[in-house]
Write a structure and sequence with these properties.
The chain has one domain: Rossmann fold (3-Layer(aba) Sandwich). About 45% of the residues lie in helices and about 15% in strands. Strands 2-1-3-4 form a four-stranded parallel sheet, with helices on one face. The mean pLDDT is about 90.
């Protein structure tokens, strides 16, 4: 199972939203987690509220720091903004979502919806790659069977 890690600064809005959308869209062949370079004490209450509006419960989300274990367990590492400066790890992708401390519910909804569109496009790409990988594995297995099949 592919492991995706979304990283932001506080792990209070952008990365938990991205991980939640990813896990909502992909249920069987990949899993996402999130963490922060300087995690907040808790997730933003506005984040919990806007995600509840779309049927995703983040009320139990615990903010986590970036750790070597999380990095080592991840196949793909995505930074949620250009404000994150990785010093001990190399991200696979860097997305450009600003870190908002907005108290505006409407602003947080906009961030949620922008992240959804980015995650949805990413999932479509990964799905295509995943299916191509499976087709390739089936082709190789069939070749091996054909080459090493001994007639009786």
């Amino acid at each position: 199972m592919k492991q995706i890690l979304f990283i932001d600064v506080r792990n209070a809005m952008r990365s938990p939203i991205a991980a939640a959308w990813f896990n909502h869209l992909v249920k069987d062949w990949a899993q996402a987690r999130s963490c922060g370079t300087m995690p907040a004490p808790h997730i933003s209450l506005l984040t919990v509220k806007v995600m509840a509006e779309v049927g995703i419960d983040l009320s139990r989300h615990v903010t986590l720091p970036v750790t070597q274990t999380l990095l080592n367990q991840s196949d793909i590492i995505i930074l949620m903004g250009k404000d994150i400066y990785p010093s001990a790890f190399a991200p696979t992708l860097v997305w450009d979502f600003e870190d908002t401390n907005s108290e505006s519910l409407e602003r947080v909804r906009e961030v949620r919806d922008r992240i959804f569109r980015q995650v949805e496009a990413f999932v479509k790409h990964l799905r295509r790659v995943h299916h191509e990988e499976i087709a390739w594995q089936v082709q190789i297995q069939q070749q091996l069977v054909n080459e090493y099949l001994i007639p009786i």
